[in-house]
Amino acid sequence: MSGTDLLRPPQSHAGLMCCPSPDVVEKRPLDKQAESREITTGRPDSASAGLFRAVTHRLGLSKAVAYSVLLRVWQLLTGPITSFYFLVQFFSPAARDYYFAFSSMLGVQVFLELGLHVVIINVTSHEWSQLKWEDGRLTGDVQALSRLSELRRLTDRWYAAAAVLFLLAVSFAGYQFFDSSAGAGDLSDAGRAAVDWQGPWLILTVLTSVQLCLLSRTSILEGCNHVESITRVRFWQALAGTASVWLLMALGLQLWALAASAAVRLTGDLYLVYGSFGSFFRQLSKVNATDSLSWKDEVLPLQWRIAVQSVFSWLALQMPILYVFRELPAGDASRLGLTWSLLTAGQGAAMAWVETRRPVFGILIAARRYAALDRLFIRLTTISSLLMAALGGALLLLILLIGQQTGALFQKLSDSLLPLPSAGLLALGFVIVHPALCSGQYVRAHKRDPYLFAASFSSLCCAVLQVASGRQWGTAGVALGYCLAVCLVQTPLLLRIWWRCRREWH
Question: What pLDDT score does 50 carry?
Answer without folding.
Answer: 55
